[in-house]
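In full, the data:

***
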Amino acid sequence: MALTDETTVHLRFARRERQYLFWSEVGRISAGGPTQALACGTVLPLVETFIQQGKTVRIEANYPLGPSVKMLRAAGAVCRSNPLPMERWNEPTPLARWQMPGVPTADPARPVYVSWEDYLARTANTQRMKRCYAASKKANRKRLLSATPEHRLTGPLVWKVIETARGRCMHCNSLAVENRPSDTKTGQPLSWAQVGRRIGSLDHVEWRMGGGDNGLDNLAWACLWCNTWPSERRWGATDHGGYFPGD
């Protein structure tokens, strides 16, 4: 594997002939393995080396990275899924699709909910619990880099986490109870960085892949921006739609 002197290192990720591969045509970098976890473990030291050298690492994935994406992002890499076939990857992609720090975003829309009480008043219990059950189902899955959790999470337990936090992000304190934006006609996900601090998500204080479990003492409510980018965790941050009602 040869390193590169580029300021920005562009890597691709895909599955080819039962192998999971990271590669860069320009930098002649190639790393992979028979599973996503092994491929990630091979490329992770390279990513860390590039970041230490002050370079930006961007990974464009044509195949799902799975839980490995958290390790890569924690190391400092910028990861994005590209739904286009590999033969069309040279086509330009709008910059706004990179949900990353430092990339210009559109101005955020007005908050959907003006307070915690407004959220409770304008959503039905069935809506809230649907979200909680989806979060618990995701948290209970066995992952490539972590075993099946010892504690099985339930929808009511997720709601307890949200209710205790009153919908506030544990890292920046923004009210984070909105859902990710989506196209009203097609349901396709839209760019969310501009309101990332208003989108709620279940967080593990100690990551699952680091040995953390689904016990209540290891669970917290966080905005999607802080959950995705630990380096962006700043109390009272008003960027990316950060919203702090006085309730």
Observations:
- The longest helix spans residues 36-52.
